[in-house]
Amino acid sequence: MKAQALADHLAENPIDEEYKSLRTYFPDEEVIMVEEEVDGEPWFYDIKEYLKMGICPEQATGDQKRALRCLSNGFFLSGGILYRRTPDLGLLRCIDAGQAMIVMAEVHAGICGPHMSGYILAKKILRAGYYWLTMEHDCITFMRKCH
């Protein structure tokens, strides 16, 4: 995208005394971040509190409370660490946004093999035993911004 924009600009504007450099905003140059919740808590905070205390957040509606009860069935709390249960009875450690960025960067950098696509990156992270809700989307976005 950047290369095409630069090529178009140079084709339309010959370099001479009146040449003005290209000033364009390229969103792919931004630092990628896994989104954190608005309230500053990790995405799994309500599930963890429900499993620990057995009560839903006060501001939750009836539908949200029911969804939280159903969703929490797929998770397991052990020693303050939340795990997601897999169909083969494995456990994946739930991580927050900061930890997710570190895991994506380390797995992609070659600790678990060479550079790969976003889908493969997500699968390798799952095999390493980590989980977060937007994992696949975040890995694909991370890979698009890598090169």
Textual characterization of the structure:
By secondary structure, the chain is of the alpha+beta class. The protein is 47% helix and 10% strand. It has 6 helices and 4 strands; from the N terminus they run αααβββααβα. It has a 4-stranded mixed β-sheet. It is extended, with a radius of gyration of 21 Å.
CA gyration radius, whole angstroms: 21 Å
Overall helicity: 40-55%
Q: Averaging pLDDT over every residue, what do you get?
A: 79
Morphology: extended
Task: Give me the secondary-structure category.
Answer: alpha+beta
According to DSSP, the number of beta strands is: 4
Instruction: Encode the helix/strand succession as letters.
Output: HHHEEEHHEH
Strand proportion: 5-15%
Widest beta sheet: strand line-up: 1-2-3-4
Unreliable segments (pLDDT under 50, ≥5 consecutive)? 25-33
Total of DSSP H or I helical runs spanning 4+ residues: 6
Major β-sheet annotation: 4 strands, mixed
Head-to-tail CA distance between termini: 12 Å
